[in-house]
């Protein structure tokens, strides 16, 4: 299978998350792994790049992340939406979601966590210990980042006509919307001063 993944300069890693798509979090520890959907993920800092994700303390993913100190953060596509809904609707303590959904993975470069095929951006994250964790927030430094060249290059998203390659946003009840077309504008002129 041809790989379209290319490294993204870590100083530009947060640009991959700026448009607010649903994300998938992969985790592993002591021979056990899990994947979950997470709509609450955002960039936090540029240098070094940091992200914040919300992972409920009662989940298997949270247990694995706390035990290992690392996790994978991925941006799924519209073409992967059925799997995104399935991993978000089933608890990892009940089933092995990777096996049950026949999810294709590849090894991360700098952490020991499976990364998912069917996505267009991947972040390898190392947890930063912080008091925010008691509020289900996980702060992490991005230690490696890569994106699919078919939709991301020159530090910009460029979604084309293949709608299955667009990232998506989750609303509720199995409803998603896809990332739309881009457009550019110049800033309005500023007149006067305050």
Automatic annotation (TrEMBL):
It comes from the Bacteria. InterPro entries: Flavin_Rdtase-like_dom, Flavoredoxin, Split_barrel_FMN-bd. The keyword rRNA-binding does not apply. Residues 15-154 form the Flavin reductase like domain. Keywords: Flavoprotein, Oxidoreductase. Its EC number is 1.5.1.-. It is an enzyme of class 1 (oxidoreductase). Its cofactor is FMN. Signal peptide: none annotated. The keyword GTP-binding does not apply. GO terms for molecular function: FMN binding; oxidoreductase activity, acting on the CH-NH group of donors, NAD or NADP as acceptor. Pfam families: Flavin_Reduct. PANTHER family: FLAVOREDOXIN, FLAVOREDOXIN-RELATED-RELATED. Belongs to the flavoredoxin family. This is Flavin reductase. It comes from Paraburkholderia caribensis.
